[in-house]
Known about the structure:
Layout (H helix, E strand, L loop, with lengths): L5 H4 L9 H16 L20 E8 L5 E6 L6 E3 L8 H16 L14 E8 L6 E7 L7 H11 L3 E8 L11 E7 L2 E6 L2 E6 L8 H15 L6 E5 L5 H6 L5 E6 L2 H13 L5 E5 L2 H6 L10 E4 L8 H10 L3 E6 L2 H11 L4 E8 L9 E7 L5
Parallel strand pairs: 5-6, 10-11, 10-13, 11-12, 13-14
Antiparallel strand pairs: 1-2, 1-4, 2-3, 4-5, 6-7, 8-9, 14-16, 15-16
Amino acid sequence: MKCPVFKQCGGCSYQHNDYPAYLDKQQNKLHDLLSSFAQVRPILAMKDPFYYRNKVQAVVSVTPKGQVITGNYKEQSHKVVSVDHCLIEDKTAQAIIHSVRQLIPSFKWTVYNEDAQRGLIRHILVRTGYKTGEVLLVIVVADKMVPGKANFVKAIRKKHPEIVGVVFNLNERKTSMVLGPKDISFSGKNHLYDELLEKKYRLSAGSFYQVNPVQTEVLYRTAIDLAQLKPSDVVIDAYSGIGTIALSLADNVKQVYAVESNREAVRDAIFNAKLNNVTNVQFFHGDATEWIHHLPIKEKDIDCLIVDPPRAGCEEAFLKTVETIKPQRMIYVSCNPETLKRDLEILSKTFHVEAIQPVDMFPWTEHVETVVLMSREVIY
Ligand code: SAH
């Protein structure tokens, strides 16, 4: 794999390898970390491991000669590396970012300077629907006054008719977070649709959505298969995002209870249940640790607990409560093997670790996804 800015960018740590060698590295890393719990199954590779990222965010910057550039922050710094062609980002998203970059000078928009905290345009964020082809464009600005917004929208939609909405998001703070807390306005829609495992999803600019739509189906199918669900099962989906795991398995079980802390994502999840005519999933807005401590159902009725926490893993208090409620089976979907290992040290006191299945969700990067099946009684 050949990327001209591989060294400066730092996004893909393993680009100097070929794909099988890259997969071996991930496999060995997981073996070292997790094999004391159970054998680590061979990682599920991606057929075509390029241009997969459906969420592409570019920092906008300007060279000393005044040329507008877009790209990524150099690893561990705030220096911007200009990226013209990225091998893991969706191609349409990249083309739209190029077009926005070209339009910036013609609208006389200034580029935000982080040190001086002056200027207008900070980031361009593009989300693409892999199955629907819909695109949502978000322009992150540092000031409410954006001259020529309507004409900009007209120009960019003319060039890229797949854009279903343009959102102007305000981020006035000195922060490395891309999105600010408020949108100033939007034109068209402020969300897009995509499909996973035959279900349709609405997602907003700020909601979490897995970044590799092809491997997400592999991941969810793996989790559902490992869970060995029955039509009489009651399932909990903790850290449920816009409801994708809960809704993907709803047809296989009696009832699902899901909890998520991001209000916008919960709103999307409730909408998505209706959109897919799913009536046996109930979504709760709240902190998973608190929610599980005050369960809305009888503990003994839970057949399967699914967790899919952020990189930090589960809080210890959450795991302590899980120990006391002891669901029959537990599925842990993890995007960080280090915190997974830490959490398995606790969980393996109560559960048998039955299967560890890695999925290559982020080819060429250092990140890797793992699904773990645990049960109270030995299954295999
Ligand atoms: N299962 C979903 C989302 C996984 S990402 C999917 O596959 O798309 C992790 C999610 O956990 C995010 O949506 C994040 O908002 C949510 N989250 C983070 N901390 C949380 C907490 N303490 N309680 C509940 N949800 C939390």
